[in-house]
Design brief:
- It is a single chain.
- About 5% of the residues lie in helices and about 50% in strands.
- The protein is mainly beta.
- β13 (about 185-195) and β14 form a beta hairpin.
- The longest helix is centred in the middle third of the chain and has 4 residues, at about 130.
């Protein structure tokens, strides 16, 4: 999968004639630089991923034909093992399945990024067996979180976790209109931007959230997150970003 879009000064996404073409607006504050990681899930390689799940979930049984199939009745987080840092764009394709399956709830197309554990700064996965995919066990982390189509596909929220186990990290921005909720069985592209003080989340080239941070998280881990849901993930790519000026 090539670069699907570029960002203008207002962070609106411009259309590309071909997948591999890049045509940045002259006023764009940053542009895509290079790919630093890509997983197309076209072969069973679980070495770069770690699962925290409330129920048994084997990655090796769920990677096939270019996708990672996440079909669970409880909570799960699938972490990439690399600690990413700097100016980055995370991008992936995802489809939430509604086909009569027992977990086809159409909800919680979620993810964590720039996640660190202030209690274990040198070993993020020290508490994996305790977190175990249980949602509130992630509260003590520092991270950004988008819950897209949460609460049975009624809300889409952006939170910043601040390393406190209680209370639930505050909602920074929220949408509840149907244009910001999940359409089942449709492939969507998610892109997440971390560039200097800007943190932004795009869904199908549309900016959903953006904040300007005084103290942004500049490094950490990326994780796919869902609960009692069935979704298919494809084409996970991490790009570096550079200034256009």
């Amino acid at each position: 999968m090539g670069i699907k879009f570029v960002l203008s000064v207002t962070l609106l996404l411009a259309s590309c004639v071909h997948q591999n073409d890049v045509a940045p607006d002259s006023d764009s504050p940053y542009v895509v630089d290079k790919v630093i990681y890509q997983d197309t899930f076209d072969r069973v390689d679980t070495s770069q991923w770690l699962v925290e799940s409330e129920e048994e979930f084997l990655l090796s049984d769920n990677i096939s034909n270019g996708s990672l199939d996440v079909n669970v009745s409880k909570g799960i987080t699938i972490w990439h093992k690399v600690k990413f840092s700097g100016n980055l764009m995370f991008e992936f394709d995802v489809t939430v399945i509604k086909a009569g399956g027992k977990n086809d709830r159409v909800s919680d197309l979620n993810c964590f990024w720039m996640a660190t554990d202030p209690q274990f700064p040198d070993n993020f996965f020290a508490q994996s067996s305790w977190r175990k995919g249980i949602f509130w066990n992630y509260y003590p982390l520092n991270l950004y979180y988008v819950g897209y189509g949460g609460h049975d596909n009624t809300k889409t929220r952006f939170r910043k976790y601040n390393g406190l186990s209680n209370p639930l990290p505050p909602v920074l921005q929220e949408h509840s209109d149907t244009s910001h909720l999940i359409i089942p069985n449709k492939k969507n592209t998610v892109a997440i931007i971390s560039f200097d003080s800007t943190v932004a989340y795009y869904f199908n080239k549309k900016k959903i959230f953006e904040i300007k941070e005084k103290r942004p998280y500049r490094e950490g881990y990326f994780g796919f997150r869902t609960l009692n849901n069935h979704m298919r993930i494809e084409n996970f790519i991490v790009y570096t970003l550079r200034s256009s000026h």
